[in-house]
Specification:
With 696 residues, the protein is of the alpha/beta class. The protein contains 20 helices and 20 strands.
């Protein structure tokens, strides 16, 4: 035991002895220690104002849409709906339905319609959970046909439809895990299923006997997730009842419930609260993950409704039972639908469910063999990628107005891919770890953090002995961190050259580089991108934070030349505690090696203006390049480096050492459209030190 202690002590002393004079020292980055996953117990923090909640709600909604490949929204192609095989049951009818959510991608279901109604009636979507029977599940706990029949008998249309890979669509696997390439293009089971549900709203809204202003949705388990996810992004859903799913202790265990970006800085309870102030009935059970609903989830969601002055529009009921959508649960949902879709103010707490005869399975099944044109997931993937490429490549960039339209179309979604924010100077904290006097400059050792986030960015701030008040400070990012910009304990060649021009220089260790915290406790499973930003996105955030710090602490007021114009407004910040920083002082930015692409995106999202020089490091902007060296989910679908450069324009931008497939011509068109073609310079190689400094 004593020998072990001696060995540990020697290792600690050796480690301390290896620390260089320019090292900042140990840091702890909270981003690496946050454990977030499907089974995490999430704290539910109250919101102090409606404005605070709505800002956060907008960010959640934007991330869901982006992660599902639904911003920008795909073209709504003809549904080519077929309604067939009507069965008359006296007070209601049953018909089989098939429509195409995408060309060749078939959605199947059953339509239950009331008879004897006057005028148009409400419609209720009925997504199912992960029971083996899908929409045809007949067990006592999840009998889907009985639910649909009862809704029809109450005077509403019910559409019971199958999730992907269920029932007739045997050629599709429901639980397919998206490949990295599919994730880059925002293609996955969650997004495809949500699109099917949006098109299901389109379908029922098109029926001549349905009032499109009175649409409801109710489902259990995975269908409960589908209910609150659909309601979060489609305001045509006026009433919902998610059953046994909204939980702070389990977020859904299937790939269809965990799309990229969905729960970054959020959770299922907040997503469920996006229904507010529209009426919502929460059904819970003591025997599953909704067992704490009455003590935790319901009070939180009720507090959100209170912000809208609509507490009467939310209710909850807890049953002493296992996971279910059984008769008792259904009987508590029916009166909610009656009250808010039918306007029946006499509806009580329970509407009894009468017995009903269920049709034979063959009478509810649309086809036994998928149609010859039915797409597989692989075929759908190629169709969607081709469509996305055409949308971007075909965007006309002939004027400033066309460039603004492009930014508006793709900019917010690109920002959502990274989930970054520009912190104001007041939200940045700096820990001073000491000052070193060097020849011709002073060097401060710093740890930069964002208040409330508690991240930690090791940094060195170089201040020249004779700063030039007319020159902007510079942030320099090296892929190996700030130590690569030193020559021993003195500034290296590039930093020395900048100091010689009277420029203040900040060098930082971005996420997981240099002296950064390396004790990674993040939950790394197949749902990683549902809950966490990728490493590339975190490094981009660190560069944004560095720009904001320098701008507020030691920047110079921006001096716009004649060909430059103020930046277009950026989308709002994506974290509830962050807000957009003012333009403030100009700060120039240099990105070397792999960090060049990171700096391009950082400048695109930053509110701080200035010149930018990036080493593209032969980056080809291809699927493989993003997968191998700069993985950010959904980035390809929303224009990747093209959209980034469109957001940077008209600021001065120098791109060096680009790969053959880098969209240089597209970037030139974007700058020409901005009216500042001379602000862009594209070089085949990285200049020497004097060239780098001069390019700014």
């Amino acid at each position: 035991m004593e020998i072990c202690l001696v060995i540990v002590l020697i290792l600690v002393l050796c480690s301390a002895g290896c620390a260089g004079p320019m090292d900042v020292g140990s840091v702890s980055d909270a981003r690496l220690h946050a454990k977030r996953g499907t089974d995490t117990r999430f704290d539910l923090e109250p919101y102090s104002s409606l404005g605070e909640w709505q800002s956060h709600a907008d960010a959640i909604r934007q991330r869901i849409l982006t992660g599902c490949g639904l911003d920008p929204m795909p073209p709504k192609t003809p549904l080519k709906a077929r309604v067939l095989g009507k069965i008359d049951r006296g007070d209601y009818t049953v018909e089989k339905v098939c429509f195409q959510s995408y060309p060749g991608f078939h959605v199947v279901g059953d339509l239950y319609r009331p008879k004897g109604g006057i005028g148009r009636v409400p419609a209720v979507l009925c997504p199912h959970g992960h029971g083996a029977g899908g929409r045809l599940e007949l067990s006592d706990d999840y009998c889907q046909p009985i639910r649909a029949i009862s809704i029809a008998r109450l005077g509403m249309v019910a559409f019971s439809y199958s999730m992907i890979g269920y029932n007739e669509n045997t050629h599709i696997q429901h639980r397919f895990v998206a490949t990295p390439r599919q994730e880059l293009w925002a293609i996955g089971p969650g997004g495809i299923q949500l699109w099917n549900s949006i098109r299901a709203v389109d379908f029922v809204s098109s029926l001549p006997d349905v009032d499109p202003d009175r649409i409801g949705c109710t489902g259990e388990s995975g269908g409960g997730t589908q209910t609150f996810i659909l309601s979060a992004v489609d305001h045509r859903v006026k009433v919902n009842a998610p059953v046994c799913m909204i939980s702070a202790i389990m977020q859904g265990g299937c790939v269809c419930e965990n799309g990229p970006l969905w729960r970054i800085d959020s959770n299922s309870v907040e997503i469920g609260a996006l229904m507010a102030p529209r009426p919502m009935m929460m059904i819970a059970a003591t025997g599953d993950w909704t067992k704490e609903t009455m003590d935790r989830e319901y009070p939180f969601i009720r507090s959100i409704y209170r912000l809208y002055g609509s507490e009467s529009h939310v209710n909850a009921w807890l049953q002493d039972a296992g996971h279910n959508y059984n008769k008792a649960s259904r009987e508590h949902v029916y009166p909610w639908l009656q009250r808010f879709l039918l306007g029946d103010k006499t509806a009580g707490d329970v509407t009894p469910e009468p017995p009903a005869a269920i049709e034979k399975m063959e009478d509810l099944t649309v086809y036994n063999t998928p149609p010859s044109d039915a797409l597989t997931i692989d075929q759908l993937t190629e169709q969607l990628i081709t469509s996305s490429k055409s949308r971007i490549d075909g965007f006309a960039l002939g004027s400033r107005s066309s460039l603004d339209r492009y930014r508006k179309t793709f900019g917010p979604a690109l920002r959502a891919c990274f989930a970054v924010a520009c912190p104001p100077g007041s939200d940045i904290t700096v820990e001073d770890r000491g000052t070193v006097d060097s020849s011709g400059c002073t060097i401060k050792k710093l740890v930069i953090s964002r208040r409330g986030i508690v991240d930690a960015i090791p940094a060195l701030l170089f201040t020249p002995a004779h700063p030039d008040p007319k020159s902007a400070p510079v942030v320099v990012i090296h892929p190996d961190g700030k130590a690569a910009l030193l020559a021993g304990d003195k500034p290296g060649e590039l930093v020395s050259a900048l100091l010689g021009k009277g420029r203040t220089v900040l060098a930082v260790d971005t996420f997981l580089t240099g002296e950064c915290d390396r004790h990674d406790e993040r939950v790394k499973d197949k749902f990683f991108t549902t809950f966490y930003r990728t490493d590339a996105a975190e490094r981009v955030q660190d560069i944004i934070t560095a720009l904001a710090y320098v701008s507020s602490a030691c920047g110079q007021p921006p001096a716009l030349s004649g060909h430059e114009s103020p930046r277009t407004a950026q989308p709002p910040a994506l974290s509830r505690r962050d807000s957009a920083v003012s333009k403030g002082a100009a700060v120039d930015l240099i990105g070397l090696g792999r960090a060049g692409i990171e700096c391009l995106f950082a400048r695109a999202f930053s509110s701080v203006i200035g010149s930018t020089l990036i080493d593209a490091n032969q980056f080809n902007a291809s699927d493989q390049a993003f997968e191998d060296g700069f993985f950010v989910p959904c980035i390809r679908r929303v224009g990747d480096v093209r959209t980034a450069t469109a957001l940077v324009a008209p600021l001065r931008l120098t791109i060096c050492n680009a790969g053959k497939e880098f969209p240089s011509e597209w970037v030139k068109r974007a700058y020409a459209a901005s009216g500042t073609p001379n602000a862009l310079s594209i070089k085949s190689a990285v200049p020497d030190t004097n060239g780098l400094v001069g390019a700014l």
